[in-house]
């Protein structure tokens, strides 16, 4: 069996059926994605709209495409026809544009709001007040359905720091879920920290290098 297939099977077995593995295929070839597809995997994550769209065009149409990277509003129109889940809703302006393009395509696009849990300055994401503001306006957006939160922990070795950031996301998730039945997705955890993320409530992990190998650059 191919290495990509071995890696993926191992992770899926390890995390069990209650956790969705999004195979992060950014920078990786169509051939590598096909290997994962051949063993039944259907969920793939990309962080660039252009790259995701060309892969969408080249691959079978029953793949669920996850957008996990920062989105420029002027590019939403390219992914609106086919994207399965947007993990990186990070502004009201973007929510309005996704809504507009979803309506144009006769779709309701499922989104997660990206919560800024890391103190890392370079990371995108919103604070609690900004998240609440978008959720308060959600009823105005017939083209989007917000079903949870996504978060990225700091790039540090200290597991306590990472775990505290995951816990922070879970606390806000539970607070929102209390009065919002649609809320059911916690997208947190990558190659280095998915076990810790699952321990802290994650049910969607985004794993790239541990499946497809290290990326160059
Ligand atoms: C690249 C990326 C991942 C996967 O990273 P790995 O460390 O390769 O597992 C997960 N989430 C986001 C948002 C990413 O950009």
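Q: What amino acid sequence fits the structure above?
A:
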């Amino acid at each position: 069996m191919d290495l990509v297939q071995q890696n993926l099977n191992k992770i899926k077995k390890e995390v069990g059926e209650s956790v969705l593995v999004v195979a992060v295929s950014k920078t990786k070839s169509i051939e590598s994605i096909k290997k994962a597809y051949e063993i039944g995997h259907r969920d793939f994550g990309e962080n660039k709209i252009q790259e995701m769209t060309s892969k969408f065009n080249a691959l079978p149409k029953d793949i669920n495409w996850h957008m996990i990277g920062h989105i420029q509003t002027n590019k939403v129109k390219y992914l609106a026809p086919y994207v399965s889940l947007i993990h990186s809703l990070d502004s009201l302006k973007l929510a309005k544009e996704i809504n507009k393009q979803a309506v144009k395509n006769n779709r309701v696009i499922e989104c997660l709001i990206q919560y800024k849990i890391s103190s890392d300055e370079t990371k995108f994401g919103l604070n609690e007040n900004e998240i609440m503001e978008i959720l308060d306006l959600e009823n105005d957006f017939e083209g989007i359905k917000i079903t949870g939160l996504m978060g990225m922990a700091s790039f540090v070795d200290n597991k306590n720091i990472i775990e505290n950031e995951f816990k922070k996301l879970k606390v806000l998730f539970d607070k929102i879920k209390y009065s919002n039945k649609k809320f059911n997705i916690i997208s947190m955890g990558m190659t280095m920290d998915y076990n810790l993320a699952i321990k802290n409530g994650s049910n969607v992990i985004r794993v790239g290098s541990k499946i497809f190998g290290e990326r160059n650059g």
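Q: And what stands out in the fold?
A: The first strand starts at residue 20 and ends at 24.
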